[in-house]
Here is the input.
Amino acid sequence: MSNTTTRGEVRLERDGPVATLTLDRESAHNALTVHMIRSLAEHIETLRADTEVRAIVLTGAGSRSFCAGGDLGELIPRLTAGELEILVPDPSKRFFSDVFVPIIAAVNGICVAGGLELLLGTDLRIASSRASFGLPEVKVGMIPGGGSHVRLPQQVGWPAAMHLLLTGESIDALRALQIGLVGEVVEPDRVLPRAQELARLIAANAPIAVRTAKEIAVRALGNEPRFALEAALNERVLRTQDAQEGPLAFTEKRPPRFQNR
Here is the structure.
């Protein structure tokens, strides 16, 4: 999470059948602004409609961060004020949950909060040996409302998921590999090349078969009602005084004073 409020961008580049999306707000660890979330959604819709796109690579600008979550100066205050549709326009959907083009994440550094929630919507994941992963929301009176309560236990198992969700602690790349959160750990300069290599490998396969294989796997999970449950309970948390106090304390660099209300 970051409290720097520059607009940020999401860059789209094409190399034949492979598209690369880059979260470009390096000065703020690629933390998500409202503009970036909307831009990402627009790019994804464009790529979904393009039958020539056979694989997508998602990464962050620079070498320090993949994404540090939502911007505490803009996005988080709007969520706690009730604008949940910014993050979750459809309560039954989450990041990339209806995208059947394979998505490969190139995690080049910090991947926490909303950044980790983006990661959970991807398919193949390449991490830098310097990467770190976490869901610190409970430390600031919030919960990760981007699908983590549903996707994380499905992907890494219950104890590892609960550790991340309930302690707010971060884990390093090797631990992320051990629990199955990422598929490979490579040296920092190999993260993006390796992700693009896998994207080209996938793109060389029969496109209808590839998209259908992913669609079956995603639809078989039946996560829509689970996502809707998370959205409803997340709204309850965001209405609390603690959800306002936590981000405020973070920006003021002091311990939060939670009231349990």
Notes: Residues 92 and 227 are 5 Å apart (CA to CA). The longest strand covers residues 9-15. The mean pLDDT is 93.
